[in-house]
Amino acid sequence: MHAPTIPDKLRRLNWWIVLTIAVLGGFGIAVLYSAAGGGGSFQPFAMRQGLRFVVLLGLMLAIASVDLKFWLRIAYPAYAVVVGLLLVVELLGAVAGGSQRWVDLGIIRLQPSEFMKLTLVLALARYYHFLPRVYVTNPYRMIPPVVMTAVPAGLVMLQPDLGTATLITAGAVGIMFLAGLNGWLFVGGAVAFAGSLPIAWQLMHDYQRRRVDIFLNPENDPLGAGYHITQSKIAIGSGGITGKGFLEGTQSHLNFLPEMHTDFIFAMMSEEWGLLGGLFVLACYAVLIGWGLWVALTGRSQFGRLLAGGLTITIFLYVCINLMMVMGLAPVVGIPLPLISYGGSAMMTVLMAFGLLFACSLSRDRTLIEEGPNYS
Amino acid sequence: METEADRQHLFTRRALLVGAGQATLFTVLAGRAAYLSVFQNEHYKLLAEDNRVSIRPILPRRGLIVDRRGYPLALNRQDYRLALVPEQVKDLEATLDAIARHFPLTEEDRDTVRKMVRRVPGFMPVEVARDIDWQAFSALNVNMPQLAGLQPIQGYTRYYPDGPAVAHVLGYVGSPSAETVDADPDPMLRLPGFKVGKGGIEEIFDTRLRGRAGADKVEVNARGRVVRTLGRTQDTPGDTIELTLDRELQVFTAWRLQGEAGSAIVMDVETGEILALCSTPAFDPNSFSAGIKTREWKALLGDEMHPLLNKPFQGVYPPGSTFKMLTALAGLASGVTPEEGISCSGRYRLGSHYFHCWERRGHGFVNMHSGIFQSCDVYFYDLGRRIGIQAIADMARKFGLGERYDLPVPSQKRGLVPDPAWKLKRHGKKWLPGETLNASIGQGYLQVTPLQLAVMSARLASGRAVVPRLLRKDVRPAPLLDVPAEHLALVRQAMSDVVNSSRGTAIGARLRLPGLAMAGKTGTAQVRRITMAERRGGVRSNDSLPWRERDHALFVSFAPVDRPRYACAVVIDHGGSGSKAAAPVARDILSFLFKQDIARGDYRTPSTAATQPAAGNTDEAASPAGTPADAPATAPLPESPGTAVSPDPVAASSAPPDTPATGD
């Protein structure tokens, strides 16, 4: 068996999916062009976002063409490095005082929490890949993945970044569910989660509590912190079915909509493109996520299946939490809409996730990974 | 999970479960988006418009108040103001600091703003500064984007060019009180900087003067900055109110009364049009327009000369000797002949009481004519006793006393014309003969306002039932009173002699204009009671008394004697005697008026001085000369402003002199 060449791999790539990703990214750039205000402008958002998108698309293809075996091999080291970076950020934050989420590497600002979303999925997939089948439901064998999840989630929570911590944890829980842990654990977990909400409330920062409170009653504070949710709903609702037209959104162009180029970009898009625009975006995501699920279902190795499933869940959570937030179904947690929101971190995470998904899909028809106890 | 196949099955089941969950959530999201943008579309569209479109009211310009020639007495001066919307201001102190860099703000101003910010709902703009000069205003406008919540306002401030001279007639404008706002549904009242009229014409015609607010429909961004104008509804200025006042005469009258507490009214004797009406001391209504300072207000309230009291309407005085004409007319109406007389010894006995004449030495023989022009009290005691109080009261009412007129003033005193019925009702007691004596010389219960004195003078002069008017409109001469012309002529002659005869009480006040003579009557109203002891020791002179205890000085007059045209009443509070304090004021006012009329060509003096009654005409009032009561009016003033010097043919034709009002 010989390893396929890179052009070979690229030829076998599902280009419809690449196209869907490009369409979403391109649409995002168009929305950012409008978000610049006035009659629309490539500065300051659209141009940079476009460049970033092209570069990161390249990165995605690069990752796609790397053999899945490689990712299996570096899963633990990568996880360890990112946990280390999270610790560094935490320490730096403690020194600088206040919250910090990134390490300044001079050229770019690295947000380790973003990488953690990927590396945790890799590490957990690897863990269950090598865990003998009989041990999967063994309670003691649950301890390592729980610790592997709790450490980074806790560190991110300390930053404090509730949204990312939620994403990381939820992704991990998803993988464990797919890995085959006892179903009752998840039912019990959900009950325990609900029961622990009051305790979580106690531990929350004031601003986080306020966000939850405002989510529950946005009308109580229409001009204060409830402003975000209220204005976002106004933007989406006033867009109607066909929208106000490209560059014609009043909520966004008159600055009523806050964070319109980042977290609330869906609201801005909906105002100008209407329900049809919104459903189109939703459909694109549905295609991507459905494809991810297909990759997972058709994976030939446990690592590939869990990796694809975990990444799909992560991407889904990104999209879902953001959309719920802008439509007033979830509190404001500060999670961007992947591929569309302005900003490099989320886009990088998601495109790298797609890269890994492609890698999974390319190694799908070969029992590539035959190492480990399950196959011997 | 025994085999790899089992594991794969489990994975597939669970992955499909996850997929189903995801599909469900996506469906919920799609449904939510559809719910918001389809089912709640109207609602959110409205909210988006609400965000985007701001209606900025344009305060209407208040209607002008002009004098009889169209000269403005109250107008609007453009000024620039700044308001802030509390809920849009992030840091009030910082914003105030920023404003203070362009416009001086005192600590008091800041306090006022802070208080208002606490009091009003957050969306209500609070005025921070007014009367900002254009430079500071444009500087603030440029910096507006950095200062969230500031609103520039171009507005108008009420301006009274003649200030205190018109204060009591026009009133002033001020912020509406909380009660006014509650009681009046007009939403304009809630706009910042909106003023309502208070006192005088401004109050009475407030709704007509207000006009209707316009609005700028503008698109604003989230910080309230105007992005573009969507449309504008022009404001509708308030109506112009045209008064009968003559601005120049009004100003002169106010100037002439300066330093005194008093009233002066000039009225057209045919139409009742009020040409001047002053009350002194006055306040400056301009200082109210911009919001009066507490200190200033307290000073006005505490002043013993009562600058806030509108004396012509609200001051009540015993008419004193100015009433004697009415007693005389009542006598004539009751059949007393003018020749009948009495010998004045300086006092008059009624039962065991003595009623004193102001002239302690006595006047000797007096009849009606000399009784009036020498103002002999004893003659009128006797006359009053003979005809009784009811005849006197009826005549007083016929001449407009004890009456409130239909005038645009917020408050008017009725005064009092006493009669037995009144006394029975009010005090439950019978009328006493001594009270008739007091009433017949204008003392006792009698109370009149200066305006009523002016009306009385005008009715005496024209014989018409004139009512005072402040609003300029087409007016016909008032109907004639049912008083025989010869009675009026007799009284007028006597009044002429008061001023023009060497023995008259107001000889010093005769007009110094060739061909023009004034008729009048002095009055002195006691403020305190003169005791018997004081009478014996000699009545203290007014000069030796504290101001508050001095007599009120009154003077009623009309001119010209032969063809009366204007009536003038002057009351000087605590002025001492009518002849010394009040008559010269009336003389000067009428002189000014006639000089002005002559200059404008509205009035032609006869080429000869024939109309001037010979001085020293002291004889009895046998002369029926003078203008018949129903003589045609002198020329009305030209209607249109700006034709002040146009020759007036009617005036010219009326110029030929009548028979001189000499006695025999």
Quick description:
Chain A is mainly α and 376 residues long. Chain A has helices at 6-12, 15-35, 42-64, 68-96, 112-130, 143-158, 162-179, 183-203, 206-216, 227-239, 250-253, 265-297, 302-326, 344-362; strands spanning 103-104, 109-110. In chain B, helix 10 packs antiparallel against helix 23 (578-600), helix 14 packs antiparallel against helix 21 and helix 16 (377-387) crosses helix 19.
Key attributes of the depicted protein:
heterodimer, A: 376 residues, mainly alpha, 2 domains, two-stranded antiparallel sheet, 2 strands, globular, B: 664 residues, five-stranded antiparallel beta sheet, disordered C terminus
DSSP summary, beta strand count of chain A: 2
Number of helices of chain B: 24
- Mean pLDDT score of chain A, rounded? 86
Q: What separation lies between the terminal Cα atoms of chain A? A: 19 Å
Fraction of residues in helix of chain B = 25-40%
Largest sheet of chain B: 5 strands, mixed
Oligomer: heterodimer
- Measured between the Cα atoms of the first and last residue of chain B, the distance is 148 Å
Strand content of chain B: 15-25%
Output the structural class of chain B. alpha+beta
What Rg of chain A is obtained from the alpha carbons, in whole angstroms? 21 Å
How many discrete domains of chain A?
Answer: 2
Could you explain how this protein is built, in words?
By secondary structure, chain A is an all-alpha fold. Chain A has helices at residues 6-12, 15-35, 42-64, 68-96, 112-130, 143-158, 162-179, 183-203, 206-216, 227-239, 250-253, 265-297, 302-326, 344-362, and strands at 103-104, 109-110. Chain A is globular and about 60 Å long. The two termini of chain A are 19 Å apart. The mean pLDDT of chain A is 86. By secondary structure, chain B is α+β, with helices and mostly antiparallel strands. In chain B, the strands form 6 sheets. In chain B, strands 2, 3, 4, 5 and 10 form a 5-stranded mixed β-sheet that branches. The model of chain B is unreliable at 607-664 (pLDDT under 50). Chains A and B meet through helix 7, helix 10, helix 12 and helix 13 of A and helix 1 and helix 2 of B.
